Hints:
The protein is of the alpha+beta class.
Amino acid sequence: xxxxxxxFAGGCFWCMVEPFDTYPGIEKVESGYTGGHVENPTxxxxxxxxxxxxxxxxxTFDPAKVSYEQLVEIYWxxxxxxxxxxxxQDRGDNYRPVIFVKDEQQRQIALxxxxxxxxxxxxxxxxxxxxxxxxxFYLAEDYHQDFYKKDPERYAKEEAGGREQFKQEHWxx
Length: 173
């Protein structure tokens, strides 16, 4: 069995794990940091906004069961692709929406998907989600992994911060 990886950033990584983690064909979803200039950053460093890192999830998946195209589609439904400066209540560059691609195939899929979303007319504002080359991915501290399972009440409060309402308004209309 050959697994592949995908990296997505879309606000707080706590809220990005569950939608992928519960999908068939996903082997694991890890919270971490990527895109910055500091090696092995800590959460305390990243949240200052000075390391250049973005909170992200690294998804290990079985391409025989779920395609990269499907993962990108799931990603769009978890983010506000019109907000370049964070996601919902999470503000700042470390929460920006980015699809980090590992190769030209992922880049072409992500670009085509972003264009399809822009052409769909779902959003009045332009789609600003970046598509960037994958950078080193650093795992977040253990307490951040599977947070939705470890602290469901706090996770529910995070979700209530606008993400769920946004999803209902734009994706379930």
